[in-house]
Amino acid sequence: MNITLTVNRKIHHLDVEPRVLLADVLRETLGLTGTKIGCDTGHCGSCVVMLNGRSLKSCTALAVQADGATIGTVEGLADNGKLNNLQEGFWERHGTQCGFCTSGMLMSLTDMLQRNPTPDEAEIRRWLEGNLCRCTGYQNVVSAAQYAIEKTQSPARMITDTPAKEIFQNRVRLLLSGDAERLVDEHYHDDAVLVGFDFTVRGKDALRKHFRNFFKWVKIEEVLSTDKFTETEDSYFYEATVRTNSGVSRVFDAYYMRDQKIVYHFTGMIK
Ligand code: FES
Ligand code: FES
């Protein structure tokens, strides 16, 4: 039978046997072997994919039943080769061992996060009930999901596990709200210096005026990612990708701190 599947945003016109399983078509016809087959009873969850936006055990559906559907597999989760937050969580929190169950878990948790971006631990565990792991167990998988939730919810798109990251995240909140007064009062010393490519601002009054003007022209809408963050005892540096009212930009800043407030700040933004 002729069917059409849109898999990971690519359209496929296929001629399949009526009795062939969706899991087999994904793996054997399309070569998407990230989807695993770990049982023949529909219990293990290794074969979970997204079908029209909802998770499904692909060994429980015939390919012909999916005719016209939009399907997502684990191969489609990364964005231009960059792991998404959930995949990164599995990496950072050691949520995988042999990896056989991992793609199914990723897809089940993807469905969960689409329906509820801030599930608690009990809900995460409920979503994993249909996914069996024979070697790692579930604790680190839950932790991986929590990593993804924290990072996605963070206005700076990061895990805030150091004092400097906490300061930076608070700063991002004020940048997003365009609050020049609090930004300066809470983050700069009286004698702080801000240096850009073609300007220097010195002292709190001048800084307030600078940020008020800046926010008149530039609305920072979202931090898309904090791509680099390095810190020492008295300094930190970051690079981030942000969306503003005039498009997507790269920003980078270096801060020298005294008593957790900025004394010297170098800033740059490039399109
Ligand atoms: Fe085990 Fe599908 S292969 S549930
Ligand atoms: Fe081996 Fe889960 S990591 S089965």
What does this protein look like?
The protein is of the alpha+beta class. It folds into three domains: 73 residues, Roll (Ubiquitin-like (UB roll)); 69 residues, Orthogonal Bundle (DNA polymerase, domain 1); 107 residues, Nuclear Transport Factor 2, Chain: A, CATH 3.10.450.50. Helices cover 33% and strands 29% of the residues. The strands form two sheets. Strands 7-6-11-10-9-8 form a six-stranded mixed sheet. Strand 8 and strand 9 form a beta hairpin. Helix 2 crosses helix 5 and helix 7 packs antiparallel against helix 8. The chain is elongated, with a radius of gyration of 24 Å. Bound molecules: FE2/S2 (inorganic) cluster (FES) (2 copies). The site of one FE2/S2 (inorganic) cluster has 11 residues, from loops.
How would the global form be characterised? elongated
Whole-number count of domains? 3
Any idea what the radius of gyration is? 24 Å
Work out the helix count: 8
Helix-strand sequence: EEHEEEHHHHHHEEHEEEE
Largest sheet: 6 strands, mixed
**Helical residue percent?**
25-40%
Task: Report low-confidence residues grouped into runs of 5 or more.
Answer: none
Structural class: alpha+beta
